[in-house]
Amino acid sequence: LKEENAILRSKINKLQILSETQADKMRKLEKKLEENKIKEEKEAQDLEAMVQHVEQNLQLMTKRAAKAENSAAKLRQENAQLQAELRSSRLENEALQAGQVGLATAKQNAEVALQHLLQVTTSSRASIRQLLSGAESLQLVADLLKSIDRIAEVSEDGQ
Length: 159
Hints:
- The protein is an all-alpha fold.
- Helices cover about 95% and strands about 0% of the residues.
- Helix 1 (about 1-100) packs antiparallel against helix 2.
């Protein structure tokens, strides 16, 4: 009976040691789980902040692109109008040259129309460059948003 009692005590001691070891492992795993939860929450908040920042930039760039498109459309319209004036001035100039009447006035009108046309052309080119720059910026933001989606997918797969 004493021998059996000793064996049972020995088993109880081993089971207590095993139980304590498993309890330690459990505490360590719970602590690690909590740390991982905190880390994931921080990463999710950081990702959300980045997405909001990108969305704000996208809205701003979209507004800029819309303004540039409107400006380009107005300049194209003005350019067409000035080209019509230039054609009219050239026709008037040709008519005056044929009649040798008021040649200096016609040349002056043609020169003024030409100057207006050159100004509008220069302004149109600048607006078109600005529109292209805005389009490139929008493309960059779209690529960044695609990258964010891939990062989120990789993060989910890694869990």
